Structure prediction request, 433 residues.
Amino acid sequence: MNNELPTTTLVIFGITGDLASRYILPALAKLDELGQLPENFRLLGLSRRQISSEDVLKGETSRLKKYLETTQMDMADPADYQKLKEKLPAQGQKIFYLSIPPAAVMPILRRLSAAGLNHGNTKLLLEKPFGYDLESARELISEIEECFKEDQVYRIDHYMAKEMAQNISVFLGSNALFRKIWNNQFIDSIDIIAAEKIGIEGRADFYEQTGALRDIVQNHLMNLAALTLMRPCGSLFEFEDMPERRLEALKSLKAADPNGAVRAQYDGYQDEVSNERSLVETFAAVTLESSDPRWHGVPIKLVTGKNLDTKVTEIRVRFKQTDESQANELCLRIQPKEGVEIDLWAKQPGFSHDLRHLPLSFDYAQGAERLPNAYEQVLVDAMRSRTSLFAGAGEVLETWRVLQPILEHWQMNSNINTYKPGVAVEQVLEADV
Prediction:
């Protein structure tokens, strides 16, 4: 056990849900195996129906039985929140993880507040979405602030918790080779891409209400953009400055031009969702500009799509061609196989003077037994009160501000491209295929 961590009671609303069973509980089991849970750790699982520990702990998560207590709770009954309060120890921190549908979040937060469960060393772990557009995000943040203080709120983006994402700023700030050239004098363009091979995987109701822009671009890709554009951290001691630096980078982004955006839908989607008139995008591409003098004139393209030819999340930085030199490209790969790759030009072996590409790559996992997964990192950082991986209210509002013109334009416009499943990102961007 880790006696450096404070005494912690983790309360999971929705312990029987998919998120808990697939991600949260396995992450906790791994942390227990690695000795990364607090010395005095307690897990309280809440469910609408009567359940036992055996009902939720299977296989590798069975090791959590020594920590877990399950409780039936009517989430709409204020009296049950008083009973919950009585179950929680007076000492140590309490973390409420809301692994529940978005519509249920605010009613639960209001009842937690009314029961006096918002005071002292209490934290909230919240999953996206954080609003549906700019106005709804403002309303949500305002409602949360009526119940909890902002410094108690930990908004999760598991992309930012990936090891390579955490290392973007350190990689740029601690290596003079890149720190000196990380500006518009040397960089021609930046593409941030999250491609998936799977479709909507039976999540018709969710996707019809969300779409690719809200599901991936507004949070994951905008946050990666902020990490890429912000002033790099020169040392590990500046990690706590990251939220403020990300916010500064987001504030510098201009509101997106709808004319520079692309939306498309893969063939067969309308049949999957049983809606032949659906205009929901499964592919979205947005080109942004920054008013920061360091990035003036550098297009920043955010691209995501489902049912494509590959699964990858990466940041591609294309350097300018100078004089007779060839343009190089740097790839920061977030997933899979987290790492860095740069294309170099070299002479072709032999008697000719032809050039060829030579990729120089670095596998971030090299030399490590394993990399912590995102949910392991999220849980440890929340318990340690580290905020660098979590999005603040200001960051959420800025991402919606940037994308709001596109949301409004698409709402008024019925044009949407189509593409065949299994094609490459570049093909969707070029035209209907």
Remarks:
- The mean pLDDT is 90.
